[in-house]
Write the structure tokens for this entry.
Amino acid sequence: MLHSKENSRYSRPELLKEIGKEGQEMLKQKKVAIVGVGALGTVAAELLARAGIGSLLLIDRDVIEESNLQRQFLFTEKEVEKSKSAAAKEKLKEINSAVEIESKAVHLNSKNISLLEKINLVLDCTDNLQTRFLLNDFCKKNKIPLVYGAAIKTSGYVFPVLPEGPCLGCFLQEASLETCDTVGVLNTITASIAAQQVTLALKILLGNFPALGEKEIVLELYHFNIWNFEFKKIKVKKNKNCKTCQGIYTYLEKKEETRLIKFCGLGRFQVQGKAQNLNQLKQRWEKVGEVVADTETISFKNILLFKDGRALIKADSEEEALAMYSKWVGN
């Protein structure tokens, strides 16, 4: 049951016929995962926290850069270089202390995607197709609703992936796409797309999708160009050649063996190593220079190291990044 303080907080949505008191109580029982706590994810997480979702799981492998502040609304200049998931958790607890929030500063892959097993719904707020298809495979296999969102330049897309409907594999192709780093993005479109994702998520969590006999959610790809104020609905049907819809989960079976990845930020590389004892490394590094630490990371020189052994390293080349990792973290 909702407490008196919560009754006051949610008095406005409870007046809506679409939610009401019963719906608000339902939302309190739900757990949502947000994968990618960036331009879409920060807005979505804040909207869900304010809406009274019972529990949030925040997953992001990256740290906050100054260029993020234009559109990643939870963050300020004080959070630059901090873990996105950890910083978002702190901000959201200040917004709604009743929401249970768990943060994971990890690179989501086929080995650790079991983090999503007890989730009621997943929001795809990522910026790369590998992770998108991994989420698509996992959610289809485990019959977990997934809401896809993407935004670039002045337009974006939203699509609900439901257990019995078409999926991302039915219309998306793995290819090299434009990124915000190369072509830019308007902050009003990222906020708008995130709001559409959350609206669909709320409808699904409240039971408004075909599997329960409702007709409110149409399985269409929604496209919005905010600069031209153009909104389109594109019908998506199951693709007979879609492996995921055939029960072939290619991305769940992939094993990532790449040790080094060129990251989206300029001059930043991700090096994957073994899990580390951050306290021991911190003591070692402090003998040489200044170390900055939070609950998820420690930072030294041009190295930002995570608990799972991943490091984000500012360097001019792959060779330099690997050399720095070897010197300061170990082989």
Summary: The domain at 4-251 is CATH 3.40.50.720 (Rossmann fold).
